[in-house]
Each structure stands twice: as C-alpha cells, then as structure tokens.
Amino acid sequence: PGSAVTSLYALGYNATTIRIRWKPPSIPNGLINYRLYQQNTSFELNASNITSALLYDGGRTSFDSSNLEENHLYFYLVIPYNIKYGLVGPTSILINGTTHEDIPSTSPIDVAATPLSARTISVTWKPPLIFDRNGVIISYNITYYSSRWMHGNTIQVNGSTTSAILNGLIPFTTYNITTRAATIAGFGPSSAEALATTLQAAPSASPVNVTVTPSSARTISVSWQPLPLRNRNGIITNYNIFYFSSQWMHGNTLRVANTTMTAVIDGLIPFTTYNVTVRAATVAGLGPASIDAFATTLQSVPDTSSTNITITPTSARTISVNWQPPPLRNRNGLIINFNITYYSSQWMHKGTIQVDGNATLIIINGLIPFTSYNITIRAATIIGFGPASGGDLVTTSQAGRHTKFKLDSFTIYNYVIEAINTMVFGTARIPGAPPNNVTVTTSSARTLSVTWKPIKLRERNGIVINYNITYYSVKWMHNNTVQVNGSATSAILSGLIPFTTYNITIRAATIIGFGPASIDSLATTSTASPGMGPIIDRLLLVNNNSVQIDWQLIPERRRNGIILGYHIIFNNTKFEFLDNRTVYVNQTNTNGTQRWFFAFNLKYFSSYVISLSAFTIAGAGPYSFKKSIETLESVPSAPIVNLVTMPGQLAASSFVVSWNPPLLTHQNGIITKYKILYLLAETVNSTNNTIVVLGNVTHHTIYNLEPSSNYTIQVAAATSVGFGPYHNPIVHLTYTAVAPNITQSPLSITAAAGTDITLQCRATGDPIPTVQWLKNGKSVASVYDIITRPGYGRLFIKYSNTGDNGTYQCQFTNAKASVISGAANVNINDGNTTGFCLGVITNDIRWPKTFNGLTVTGACPQFVKGNTTRSCKLNIYNNPTWAEIDTTNCESSAYSTISALSQQLDSQGANASEIVVNTLASLTTNRKLYGGDIVAAISTLTKLNRVTADITLSQLDKLAKIQSNLFNPQNKEGWQFGKKFCRRSTNTPDILNNFEELANKATLSSTNGKTTMNANNLDLEIHDIQGSLATSDFDISSNVKGASGMQVSLPKKAIQDGRFTKAIVVQYKTLDEIIPNTVSKISNTNPAGNAIQVNSKLISISFHSQVSGNISQPVRIVLRNTNAVTNGNGSIENRCNFWQPKTSQCGWDSSGCRTGSESNSTHTVCYCDHTTTFSVIVQDKLNQQIRIEIITYICCGIAIFAIALTILIYIICWRYLKNTLSVITVNLFLCLLIINILVISGLTATSSKPLCAAISVILHYIYMVALSWLLSHAIYMYNATFKNKPKSINILGQFILACVIVLFDEIIVYDIIYGRVTGYHGNLSSGNTDSKARATIIINISSMRILHKIPRVNSSATDDEIQINKQVLQKSFILASMLVMSGVFFVVFVSTGNIPSQYIFAIINMIH
User: Fold this and answer.
1) What is the pLDDT of residues 931-966, one digit of tens each?
2) Chain center to CA of 191
3) 754 Cβ contact list (under 8 Å, min separation 6)
4) Maximum Cα–Cα distance for the chain, whole Å?
5) Rounded distance, CA 367 to CA 320, Å?
6) What is the C-alpha to C-alpha distance for residues 1388 and 1395, in angstroms, rounded to an integer?
7) Which of 255, 288, 414, 666 is the most exposed place for a label (fewest CB within 10 A)?
8) What pLDDT, on a 0 to 100 scale, did the predictor assign at position 733?
9) Strand locations in 159-214, DSSP E?
C-alpha cells in the first residue's frame, strides 16, 4: 500500500470494550489486509513487541477490542499490507481510546476506624485495587450505625481523600462502619464492617433523687440514684459529693466508689446550712452536678468562750463584768444563757450567776473587799455549755474610814488626801527594794509567766499599788513594759517572739513612785511554728515522674525555732487527689541560701500544684505560694480492662477481641496503641506466638486461626513511651471448620490469538479458603498475572497465544478440605502460524509467538533479576523451532555479593583470597545459579588465579567444593549460551584449566606424594611424579560411580622428556550432563554436521611444569562408555575427543587423539599427544541427512538428459559407430548416467540402513568403474597415437588392465597417506572411499598428462590421424580434469554439507 489508513479513531464502547474504526488507504496498490496493534502505553513497533502487540489481523476496517480494563487508556495503530506479496504499507498515526467507567468491583481496602474522642471517630481506608476501581473514584460513602442506641448516618467525602472524621457520635458506643467507593457509574460494594468504640466522656447528666439528712452536729447523710444509662457516657468510676456553706465559706469534695449510692459527710460546722451536690465521674471526667440539696447540721455546745471580757472592781464589794458572746462561727447554735463564775482562793469564796443569753453586762455583789477573784464566763446553747473563758483576776477595792464635812453651797473646795502608812506611821515613799524571788517560766512561744513575792513590809514604804515588768530581747531589739496591780504576784508576758531569750526585771511602785528593779531574769520563749512559708524558686522535672523542688530558706526571724523539716503537698489536679509528704532537713540539700529536694514516684502524666511549709517541734508554719508542673508520660502501670472475645463472622477462623483502656489513673499518658498477643493454648510456653500492633482502637478481629482450637489472648496498652503490662490471658475456642463451597468457577472461552482473557473463581468457607490456579491439572507458573485473595482468584492472560491453550481450574483449600472448581477450557485460535515459533511456557517463562529468525526477551524466573532471551530458528527440516533459553543475564540474590568479591580482589589482591574463597563457597552451596551468577563466579575465580601466587590446601579444598557446586546439574540451564566453557581472551584460562592452575599453586604436604580431595561433583588428585628422575610410568585408575575402569597412563619416558614434576587429575562426575555438545570450528570430529553426544564422564589431566608442544609419547586414557556401543553397530561410533577452549575454536575436537583398537562396547581407549579435558563422543549416523539444493536437481537433470541423449544417438547410429573407442565411450557414459541418477535420488535415502549401504557401495563402485573406463580410453588413445594403429582391441583385457592400475593406486594411496603420514594419530577418516577416489583420480590425471607429453613413435599413422588423435586426447584430458573437479567438490559437499561446494559440483558436472 502506498499510503496509511485514514479516519482512524478509537472510542470507548462500554467499560471493557473499545471500538476501533478506520478507512482504507487512498493508495491500496492491490488487495490488502490490516494489522491492528494495541498497547496500554504509547509505543513504537519493534522486534520485541511486534508479536505481543498484535490485536487483529484481517480484512475488516473495524474491530472491537474486548476484555479490557475499566477506565483504562489504550493506544492503537494500524498497518495495511498487501495480501499477495506481504508488502507492508505505512504505519498509521498513534491514537488512543479509553474504556468507560464502571462501578468499582470491590470495596475500599484496609478500612480502619480509630476513636479520636468521645464523639468523633477517624476512619481511614485505601482505595480499591487499581484494577478493581473501574474508573476514577469521585466519592466515598461512610456509613456508621450503633445497634445499641439505633443511631447512625451516612456521610459522603471527596474521592481524593482516604480519611474522614465522624462527628456527633454517642460516647462510649460501638459503631459498625462501612465504606463504599463510587465512580461516575455509581457506588460499588460496601467494605467489611470496621468496629470502633468512641472514647468515654464525662457523664451528660447528674445522679437523680439526691437526698441529704443531717445526722449530727458535724455530719450529714447523702443518698442518690444512678444517672440514666444513656447519659453515663462510659463506665462510672466514682461519685463526687460537693458540700459548701456560704455562711462560713466551708466546703470540700468527697469521692466515693462507683458501687455505693450513699455517703456520710463529716467534719462539718454545727448549726450550719450546707448545699450538697452529687456528680458522677468516668475516666474522662466529671459530669454535671445535681440540683442543690440543702441541710443544716444540728446544734452543739459552743466551741469557744465569750470574748472581749472586761472586769472592773466598782467598790470594795462589787465587780462589774462586761463581755461579748462567742464569735458567731463558734457558737454552734443559739446562745440561751451565760454562766458567770467568781472564785477567791484566798477566802474560798465563790459563786455562779446565770444570765439571759442576750445579756452582756452584770454587777457581782457581796464580794469581800480588797480580795482577788478569778472570774470565768461560759456560753450555753440548748445542747449545753461551752468552754469557760480564761479566768481573769480582779481585786475588789479597799474599805476605809471617811469623814463627813458640812460644806457651804455653791463653793469650790480643794482636797488633799494623804495615805498614812499604818505600820510606820510615817510619810509614804518609793519602795526600798525590788520584789523577791522573781521567777520567769516559759508558758508558750509568745508568753512568759513571771512570778514574784512582794517586798518585805518594812521596805515597801507604803502601799504597793502596782508592779512594772520590763522584758527585753537583745537579739531582736524587742522590749516592752507591762504594769500589773500592786496586789498581783504574777503576770503573763504576751506578744513575745517565739524561740527568743528575754531579760526580765520587775519594779514595785507605791503612790510615790517605782522602786529599784530586780536582777535580770532570763527566759526563752517556746518554739512556735514558722511564721512564714518557704518561697519556691523553681520546679525542675528530673525524669518522667520526678521533680526537683528548689526553695529559699525562711529568714531566721520568722523561723520561730529550729526547722526540723518540711511538709510538701502535691495536689494532683488531674486526678483530684493530694499526696502529702514529710521531708526532714537531713533529706534535703542546701547551699546556704537555698534548699532542694527530689520528689520521686509522682503520678505520670499529671498536673501537680505543689506547695510546702516548714515545721518546727511546735508545728508547721504557713504554706508557700503554689507552683505548677506537669509530669511526663510513662508506660501504663496497669493492664487494660474488660477484655472479652466473641466469634467473628468466620467463627472457625476468626474472633473479635474488645477491651477498654486501662483506668485513667493507670494510663500514665495518652494511649496511642495496643498490641494483642495470641497463640494456641497448648503452646503457651512456646515462642511461636503472634503479636498484632494496632492504633488507638479498642477492638480488633483476628483472622487466619485454626478451627476447633483454644487460643490464649492478651492485650497490652501503650503510650508514646512504650507498652504496659498484659492483661491476664483469656481463652477463646474457635468453631469447627466449614469446607470450601465454590460459588463461581472459571468459564471456558474460545478466542483469537492476541485476545486478553480473564478467568475468575470464587468460593466461601470457614476459614476462607486459599486459592491456587491449575492448568492441565498442574500448578500454574508465575507467568500469568494472577491475583489471589482468600476466597477469590483471578488469572489474566495478556495477548493470549496457542501456548495458553488448556484447562484452567481453581483449587480452594482450607483446614477442612480441598475442592477443585469446574474446568475452563481455553482454546486460542491462530490462523497465522507459518514461519512462527508458537507461544509456549517453559521454565516458568511465557514465550510469545515469534517469527523465525527473531529473538525475544522474557523475564527471568520469579525472584531473579534480569531478562532471559530465546531465539526462534529453523531446524534441519526447515521448521521454526525454539532454541534453548539463555539465562546469561539472569542474576539471583547471590550475584551482587559475587561481583563484590571480584571488586575486593581488585582492591586488596591476594590479601582478600581467604574471604573470597570462604564467601564464594557459601554462596554456591545448595543454591540454584543462573547464567549471570555463573559468569560472575567464573570472573571471580579467574581473577583469584591471577592475583594469588600460593594456595593453601584448606583453600584448595574449598575451591574444589566451589567448582563442584558450579557443576551441580541444577545449574545446567545457567551454563548454556555465552560460551561459558570457553576462554574470554587469549591470556585468560577457561573455567576447567583455571581450576587446575589453582590446584598447581597448592603445596603438597602428603608424605606419599599424593593429595586427594573429594567433592559432590568431582574428585581431585595431585601427584608428585618426579620429573626427569621418574622411575616408573604414571598410572592411576578410578572407581568413581559411572566411571569405573577409567585409567590414565603416561610412559616414564614422556615424564622424563617433559620434566613433569606434578600431575593433576580431575574426574568430573556431572560435567558430561552440562558441557555443550558443540564441535570446534577446526575439528574433523563431525565433518558432516551430524548429532553428537558425550558418552562418558569427563576427565581433565595436566602435567606441570609444562613444556611447549606436545608430549613425546601419547597419554593413554581409558574411559567408560555411558551407553555401550557394540563393534558391529554401524549406525553410531565412539570417538576420542578433548574440549578445545580457544575463543574462536571452542568446542569438541579430536585433533591429536585417536581411538585405540582395544576399545570395546563398554570402554573406549584413547591415545592423545597432549593433555586437557577428555571424553568419548558418540556420533549417531542415523541422524545424518544430506540436503540436496534445487540447483543440484536442475544441473544433474540436464546432465542426465545430455548423457541419455548421447547414448541414444550411439544406439541409433551404432552400425556406423561400432568400434572399440565407441564401446569404451558408451560404457563411460553409462557409468556417468548412473552416478548422476544416484546423486539426485540416492543421497537422501538414509532412513533405511541397508539401502543407505547399498547406495554407498554402488556409487563407489560405479565411480571407480568410470575411472577405469577413463583410463582404458587413455590407453587406447596412446596406442592409436604412438603405436601401430590397432586393427582390433581386446576390450575386456584393456578394462582389466585399467582396474589393476586403479587398485594399485588405491594401495599406494592408503599406504602413503593413512600409514605413514598420520602415524599413531589414527585414521582421520577410516573407510572413507571418497578420499581414496580423490587420490586415485590425481594419479590417473598425472599418468594421462605424462602420456600426452611422450614423443610420437607411431610412424605408420598419417599426420591427419595423428593430429586428430592428439585433439581427442586433449579433449579427453579436459573431460577427465572436469570429472576430477566435480568429484572433489562432490566429496566436499557430502562430507561437510557445504552449500557452495554443492553448487560448484552441480555446475561443473552439468558442463562435463
């Protein structure tokens, strides 16, 4: 065609079909067909895809490409071609088409639901597998539903996202969640249900029916009912009862367990109204408070006495008492009365007066003048009296005389009153001495008790009206003076500084003034609690739950004593509890101005408010200002709770595990994940367990379990720090298994070659059965695109070919049974197979239909890198046939390591030899090696030989194992192609010689002159043979399995001549199965190109130090034939051969070797003038086939026609031509006629052994007869030319004479060529009659030429006759020469199959 097709387009027809249309080319140039090519990527045609991309080959201008992937882009081009001549036209433009979308065939995968909070769940998923999407995913529907509360909904998200947040959920509720993917065509199936339980939340309602009842002055009883289940939002962990009095700002929170519905609140203030609320709590926090319930505690006796008591003597017999009731906070009820008690210890005079509760003043009458009374007041409620007041002392006034004067009215009088000392009757003065026996006693931290005795009467100098007590602290410069009544003999000094020494003096005073001070009395106040709290400088986190607290020392002035230690309050605000710790000073550290303390074992992941107070022996001081700090996370300190299991949807092979997180107080952080440990109960002490690590979910389904089995399950929670303890194991028993039930078998299909085919099968069962595809009853290789999931299998055949024909089945297997589906018959029709190697599956590699002469590439077997190649070639019958697979570029996992060893030798040289040998031995043991691996190993071993001068026997033993591993029969495929047994270059040894060179570098340590090493696939022997000092022949024999009777002998003289000191013999046990059956290019082993076969084990021999050239006497090798060959078997023969490793001549060769006459059916004896690797080659003569070219048939046919026409002319004109020369000529022509007939009809008749032999004998005989008639013709012409012209001739005699000469020639030729020249090498082509014929022809031609040059001696002949005879003789010489030439080329083409030789023979024979 002169132009490409036009109007080419491709449109999606449905989800799996694209319709392609085009118009014929504008210049068709004859009848045309079209080839339509399809690929799923943009492409150009080349040798690698011209077969695989072909979709349609025919005369239509439209085609529907079906069984395509949904929503997939495909590329197309069309090439027209001439039907008659096969001429290909221009390629069309590349177009594309896309199949329609379909609903997804499967659901999203890996759907996981994770609770984020009490009302939200995070849902994640992965899109359906790419081949199941069937289009662009535009949206997802996420459906959630709680069967417990009948709550659910469906949300839709964009198709580009793979996650969603579900909001508005009910706390602590399990939701079933499914997802569906949608294309533009609609929604696909729903995913399997994912279960997720929302986290707990604080309760959303309060407890109900809260009742409060006062039970005493300081207690209230509280009762309530639980809140509704729907509002609990989790597991109720406790109840918090909050009570508060707004009157006194007094309250607290009481926490009780979740199991009780009553509580008693104690420590309350009497006669106080409290409002009480109750709140329920989960691990997430507290719910709302209940409605306030009010209760008032009962009355009690007052806590304190009356206050602000003022006692004043109003006369010698009356005292005024004034007071205020106890503070309202301490009355504990309604004050109904007061009792005022007075008592004089001097006169034992006492009494009690009770007044109304509203009174605050009373005058006590009837007292004794100038007497001290102790007065106390007690307040009373309806319950009773409270404590008495402190007991204040007061003294009534003195009683005295008085004189009445009559005074004038409205007159101002001045009075002077003078007291007269009744003792001395003199005028009053200041006391003359201080008080006596002053005693100061510490009564408290802020008070000192001072007592004294009055001044002696004579030193009073009057009435002592009061005393002044002065106290003074030198340390703190604190002083004051207290004045007391003159009648007092004690006083309390208050307002002092605690833990301070005071100097105290007392002075007495009369009305005149103060007398002298007493001697200083020293007293120290008691220790008090510190006057201020420490100041916290910082809180420093030492580790996850330890804090360093730094604080300033309390100023000494405020310490109020010796600081013994500190009370530290750790208020855990997260969990609402206090941790009080007492720390003594010696447990802290100080630097003089600061102290610090390490607080350990705090609650992890908590917020702490920390304060501390110092304490002395008197008690604790105020607390410091508070500081906050948060501890870090740790692993949970307790296991999860409420661990349960239930059967899964597949109860025999799965179960669902659910649990709740550890209690909040034990979580020690945010729970981020869980792990599930499960194992069969009977293997509980085994390490064969399974651990599943999950996200923050509280349920999980375990699959792939054994039916009817007990499993122990444990679950542990984790924070970001790690996992906590496992829950105690629980046991779950799985159900009995259910056998597979096939629900869909693959369907049979008949299709044209190149069609894509999809087979599917499905089955149910418990456990869900696994699936394996079978083809023709055997497991399908990895060459197909196979997708298997539990219960489902899909097999996709891309660009099907006849190699895919067969029956396909699915085998479903579970613990109960194994079931095979119905068979799908796949029948691929291919109408275009001429010149192609058909598609085939070999060695797990799928080879497409390939045209003769092309090489295709296939992927190496599974888990092996690289590509293989395989060629389609013509066999001897001109039929396309697949060649062997070339894995040279295949590299197993060992390849990179072997290559690295080679690089290590490059960088380190011989220093790396030990590690290289050890590693290579390990890498090649029990491992299948591919072509690339073997190439790398050969390279490494060759390089090792090059860089290493010496080999230890230990290394040599490992090298023998490496060589043995390489020749493991499982590696046979890897040795094919790439000429791996040949030299890489002129100076590089092949793999066999390389091993012997390495062995030669080993130093022998054996005392008997022999070292033997044995490996699985070879035996190595190294012998010391003494060189020129050798005293005996070298002779060894073998008992290797399959090679018993093998012998090697080298004469002593050859050892001496070669000065051989070491002999290395390697007997290979498996190499005969691996080494190629190829012939060296220079070999005469198989000149006809017939099939050959290695027929013995291989033995490799080398002698060192080697001399140049061949050994002086042949080495004798006896090899055991693998297959016996009898001497009388004319169809096959054994020949001695050696492996020629030269790069350009690589193959089996027999040069320098001959087969000994003593050979028999079981053993072959070889004599060779060199050493290398030897074997017996068997040649199957029955496989010889001579191919006759058309030109040979044509030329021989013309020759037969010409010869037959000539003979016919002679017969017709015989009466005129009858003479001796005509008889010779006709006989010669008859021989030539028979020879030509046998050439075109008999050479190919090799199928029958007797017929083949008969044709060979006849052909040889007729050819020799022709030569004899030719010689007779020469003799006749000689006589006719140089002697008297004969009147008649004895034809029989002439012919016999010619036969005798020819026979003599053959004897001479055999003796010269095959006796003396070849010597012990043996007959190069024993029995080859063509070789003898060639020699005979040469002698005959030489004789004729000599006769032609002899001077004329026949004087009787006329000049014309002589001239005619000379011309005839010259023409005879030319014809004889042409006969010789045709015979030479005939022998060449028959023996070698050389096509040009056959052409030359046919042309010369025709001209002749």
Assistant:
1) 888 888 999 999 999 899 888 988 899 999 999 999
2) 27
3) 54, 55, 56, 799, 800, 801
4) 239
5) 11
6) 10
7) 414
8) 92
9) 163-166, 174-183, 186-187, 194-197, 208-214
